[in-house]
Amino acid sequence: MTSAIAAPSYLQHQFDDAAQQRHTATLGMWLFLATEVLFFGGMFLGYTVYRIYYPQAFAEASRHTLIIYGATNTTVLLVSSTVMAFAVRAASQNRRGLVGLLLS
């Protein structure tokens, strides 16, 4: 009769052991970071090239920029990110009521 050894609670079902799970998570994070660097690097490179080739257009556009819109968007982004971080923490603590409140 074979007895099954219980896996540690942190080990997900698709992994054979903790080392494989850790390796996969590390590889996934590096791949994510690489794609972000490529994406935002391309965006900043494009911005820089256009900024160099069309300085008059950027100067004209900056005179039409409304600071209140940028400040409002930044505030919404920071507050929503903070609320989501609190929701993730509440979910990890198994506090369903708080998670529902934060996600609504």
Structure in words:
The protein has 104 residues and is mainly α. Helix content is 75%, strand content 0%. It folds into 2 domains: 17-65; 66-104. The protein is built from 4 helices and no strands. The longest helix is centred in the middle third of the chain and has 36 residues, at 18-53. The chain has helices at 18-53, 55-62, 67-92, 96-103.
Strands, total number: 0
Q: Distance N terminus to C terminus?
A: 51 Å
**Structure class:** mainly alpha
- CA gyration radius, whole angstroms: 23 Å
Structurally, how many domains make up the residues? 2
Secondary-structure element series: HHHH
Helix content: over 70%
Quick check: average pLDDT?
91
**Low-confidence region ranges:** none
Shape: flat
The major pleated sheet works out as: none
**Assembly state of the chains shown:** single chain
- What is the strand content? under 5%
Number of helices: 4
Short précis:
By secondary structure, this protein is mainly alpha-helical. The protein is 75% helix and 0% strand.
Protein topology:
Elements (H helix, E strand, L loop, with lengths): L17 H36 L1 H8 L4 H26 L3 H8 L1
Helix pairs in contact: 3-4
